[in-house]
Specification:
The protein is mostly beta strands. Strand 9 and strand 10 form a beta hairpin. InterPro entries: ConA-like_dom_sf, DUF1349.
């Protein structure tokens, strides 16, 4: 059973956002898309397993109040190890969630990293999504953040359900990074906001 969600009704102009970390360059395309080139070896990660802290991935953020959802769409043209793009949900440098698609060990992976001082990571392979348009949706309701994603107009997939303090001031928006190389350019094709999801599962 497909889970139909109310699409966000308010397109967000790229100028509405503020860069958490500025990219190497940006360029506006003829259809309103935003091309972003992250810095070489940029990433977001805290400690777990690898031991390092990286906090320099470019992310264009706008407020995500309780009761709202945000969607980011991008062309999936990732090719090198750890190339990634999606949505960053930001509280502070020790509390954040990133979700989207990443190249890991030669495969496209749909996943999320939830960080509360230490990062975790969950992935699932999506090789069939190559060269298509991906949309990642984050929805903030009550004490929870629900993350979903889909390719083109296919059904939504639940990626993650994680706690998020309803008292926290939260921003969110498109992010990308290239931990292992230079020259990645991500084409973001849409950024929208609207009401939060009313259910986690179709039967709710």
């Amino acid at each position: 059973m497909a889970f139909e969600l109310v699409p966000p009704s308010e397109p967000l102009d790229w100028v509405r956002g503020t860069w958490l970390h500025p990219p190497v360059r940006t360029e506006h395309g003829p259809k309103g898309e935003l091309l972003v080139e992250p810095a070489a070896e940029s990433d977001l990660w805290r400690r777990t397993s690898y031991g390092f802290v990286h906090e320099d991935a470019p992310a264009l953020l706008a407020p995500l109040p309780v009761g709202t959802a945000m969607e980011v769409s991008f062309a999936l043209e990732l090719t090198e190890q750890f190339d990634q793009a999606g949505v960053l949900v930001w509280v502070d440098e020790r509390t954040w969630t990133k979700a989207g698609v990443e190249v890991s060990d030669g495969d496209l992976q749909l996943g999320a990293v939830v960080t509360r001082e230490f990062s975790d990571w969950s992935v699932a392979p999506v090789p069939e999504w190559a060269d298509r348009v991906v949309t990642v949706r984050v929805s903030r309701a009550g004490d929870a953040l629900t993350v979903r994603a889909r390719v083109d107009e296919e059904p939504w997939r639940l990626v993650r359900l994680t706690p998020l303090d309803p008292e926290s001031q939260v921003t969110a928006g498109p992010f990308c990074c290239a931990p292992s190389r230079t020259g990645l350019v991500v084409q973001f094709t849409g950024w929208r906001q609207g009401p939060a999801d009313t259910a986690v599962h179709p039967e709710d």
